[in-house]
Amino acid sequence: MSVPLLKIGAVLSTMAMVTNWMSQTLPSLVGLNGTTISRAGTSERIVSALYPSPEEGWQIYSSAQDADGKCICTVVAPAQNMCNRDPRSRQLRQLMEKVQNITQSMEVLDLRTYRDLQYVRDTENLMKTVDGKLKTASENPRSLNPKSFQDLKDKVTQLLPLLPVLEQYKADARMILRLREEVRNLSLVLMAIQEEMGAYDYEELRQRVLLLETRLHSCMQKLGCGKLTGVSNPITVRASGSRFGSWMTDTMIPSSDNRVWSMDGYFKGRRVLEYRTMNDFMKGQNFVQHLLPHPWAGTGHVVYNGSLYYNKYQSNILIKYHFRSRSVLVQRSLSGAGYNNTFPYSWGGSSDIDLMADENGLWAVYTTIPNAGNIVISRLEPQSLEVLQTWDTGFPKRSAGESFMICGTLYVTNSHLAGAKIYFAYYTNTSTYEYTDIPFHNQYSHISMMDYNPRERVLYTWNNGHQVLYNVTLFQVIKTAED
Description:
Layout: H1 3-30, H2 44-49, E1 58-59, E2 63-65, E3 71-73, E4 77-78, H3 82-85, H4 87-122, H5 124-139, H6 146-159, H7 162-197, H8 202-223, E5 227-231, E6 235-239, E7 245-249, E8 260-264, E9 267-275, H9 278-283, E10 287-297, E11 302-304, E12 307-311, E13 317-322, E14 327-333, E15 354-358, E16 361-366, E17 374-380, E18 387-396, E19 403-406, E20 409-413, E21 421-427, E22 432-439, E23 447-453, E24 458-463, E25 466-475
Antiparallel strand pairs: 1-4, 2-3, 5-25, 6-25, 7-8, 8-9, 9-10, 11-12, 12-13, 13-14, 15-16, 16-17, 17-18, 19-20, 20-21, 21-22, 23-24, 24-25
Helix pairs in contact: 1-4, 1-7, 4-7, 5-6
């Protein structure tokens, strides 16, 4: 093969070598092999592995308690789109863009080389002929007569279009040298980034963030728990219905259900009004009606995870009614529990069995003859209504105005009338009790329902035909795993 063809072959070989290095060696060098390209052309693995300092945009969370006893829960987590703002991420994107530009340049070179190589191959026979004639003329100048000279001149003229092609090859060779230098610089920068991020394995970092998020959620749940120390002034939401009744929202944690339910009266009622939102309840609009298959007794109803739990009229049977399917899912007798005003609260109203929910689940407050009329607390399994555990508080139920559960502690009021206060607490976690003195304003002088909602951390009350809310103050000490 002639010298020009050897040079062309060398150029093609160099281009193939650089292309192969770009597609295989470079990605493996910086750990990009097998890494998918995500938004904005960034490498998801490398960008996600960055761990910038708080000053660079990370949100700082921790858990602590301030001087007033309020718990502050925080966690270390990246702000949204943090990776897009991080300087190292921007630098990496710029490098990736350079790699893409180099790749595009290599593709153009490859296409042009293939096209020009075809042209060179087409003129290869002509080049061999000219090369032979030049050798003959060089060795034997006398053999070059006018006719053969003209013939040689014509063939050389046919080769003239090959000159621009060869000039382009020279330019391409210079471009390859420049690209090789850029690639070398890129590899150095990417290696530096890799070393900088080498201490942070992506999967390990992700697990750390998940752990911190779990701690945050745990801390937030503890924010709803603690010892009751105060009750706010009443917030009247609406005045509707008769003197006795109950109203509620779903007590399940977590839940995005914003519906409000209202049940007027304390015995033989079957009509439950369901409002779409609290605002609809306040305005008395946008509601549907549920007609229960069995009438209720008392006002101690509770909604938990989309189902209404209530006491069946003239019995100690508990019923779970599912609102979506409008059907009874389960019925179960609360063994030994008094009913039909055998052991009601001080205001009567068939309030023998009071169902409620808190952060720990579903509860029943009642009493039995063997317990001599003292309040009994039972924790219930929500699906089957089976009694899981029972406590005898020793407090006479007829002396209680109302009661409610917060974080496994039963709080009891001493009256349903004006001047009432919360004056007894029973702690199921330690099976101990204490007398308290927590006043609250009984604005309408006759409370017939009082329940705590752990989702909203408020008390729902039905007070003489008024639907009223109270905020609660809980004293809490948050301890982390490091404490």
